[in-house]
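Structure (tokenized):
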């Protein structure tokens, strides 16, 4: 049987080109999980321990290169800064191990946030003890969450101090499709919540936040430790999430917005 080798080569070449085209046509918008293994050239600020910028390094802490864990099916959204943001979804979130992120009895979490009021309540940033459930679970870690309606959402904090819990009723966001820079600071005696560098509320507690048994920092949901009261996953947009091992001043928070 005679085989036309030139036809075979030509057919193979066309097939190869087609595969390359298919593989490249969506390279501008990477799938979740397709990330480089290097950290890049980012130079952290003083005390900065985590930076999630969601620009083709979506899964990585740009400071250490440590990957996040992805649960569910989230996606990349329109950004506040750079190329993409994190877009939450039902039953979805990402998490980072807290080891090495926080200081001794103090920390700051700051991020750009565009609220989606559906569902009308959710977790935003949650650190909890997975081995303690129910009301006792709120004696450990902290929970930044939201609740409200289609026109306004209140950002609140619950923090565990070992023997009990502390509440900070934060402030209210208008649901207007605008980005807001949310900052949470925790010191040995106080929690503070800021919107766009403006202090919304301070809450004082009798002992520092207790992180005993806490393992992960959950972003975009309440995760496994605070899924009751209807505060579950968030469909909002998050961008440039930063964690510091110290309490930032108002001036330092404002500088992050530039």
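Design, position by position:
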């Amino acid at each position: 049987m005679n085989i036309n080798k030139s036809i075979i080569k030509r057919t193979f070449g066309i097939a190869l080109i087609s595969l390359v085209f298919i593989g490249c046509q969506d390279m501008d918008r990477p799938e979740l999980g397709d990330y480089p293994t290097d950290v890049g050239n980012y130079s952290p600020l003083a005390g900065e321990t985590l930076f999630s910028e969601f620009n083709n390094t979506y899964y990585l802490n740009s400071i250490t290169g440590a990957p996040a864990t992805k649960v569910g099916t989230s996606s990349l959204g329109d950004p506040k800064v750079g190329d993409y943001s994190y877009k939450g979804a039902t039953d979805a979130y990402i998490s980072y191990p807290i080891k090495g992120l926080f200081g001794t009895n103090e920390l700051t979490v700051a991020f750009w946030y565009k609220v989606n009021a559906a569902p009308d309540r959710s977790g935003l940033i949650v650190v909890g003890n997975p081995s303690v459930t129910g009301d006792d679970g709120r004696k450990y870690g902290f929970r930044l969450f939201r609740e409200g309606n289609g026109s306004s959402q209140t950002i609140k904090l619950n923090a565990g101090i070992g023997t009990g819990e502390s509440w900070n009723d934060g402030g209210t966001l208008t649901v207007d499709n605008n980005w807001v820079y949310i900052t949470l600071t925790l010191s040995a005696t106080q929690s503070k919540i800021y919107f766009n560098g403006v202090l919304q509320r301070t809450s004082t507690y009798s002992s520092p936040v207790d992180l005993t048994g806490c393992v992960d920092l959950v972003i975009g949901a309440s995760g496994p430790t605070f899924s009751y009261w209807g505060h579950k996953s968030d469909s909002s947009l998050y961008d440039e999430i930063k964690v510091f091992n110290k309490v930032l001043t108002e001036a330092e928070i404002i500088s992050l917005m530039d």
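Reviewer-requested clarification: Confidence is low (pLDDT under 50) at residues 5-37. The first strand starts at residue 48 and ends at 52.
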